[in-house]
Fold this protein.
Amino acid sequence: MDADTLRFRKDLYLIDADGSNLQRLTGTGNVTAPRWSPNGKIIAFEWNIQGNEVFIYDLAGRQIQKIETGFQFAGNPLWNKDGNQLLIFGRVTEQSKPEARLINIESGSVKIIHKITLDKIGRNYDWYND
């Protein structure tokens, strides 16, 4: 690949606060919207190629897992304060109404626990859970 082909490629990297120990975590490109879990052990992120999908990167196990949201276009993952749930926004198809889905992530399993249909979707959402 030439430099122009790689120019817009985005991957996840991990680096110490002092700028040392740079580590590339993904090699696929098109990674956006990374979100650290509250315990700092997992990063949720979007992968944007032919639709959007949400993945999590487990730092301890160095493993990537796709989150099965049921969406063709999924994104903007937001963690709850305990780090065991993600609020994910998306659409089942390009023509369908936007939804928010609360995904329970425990011991490697993913379970949709709630769905909300929205009139419109944007990136200006936040989630607070007591």
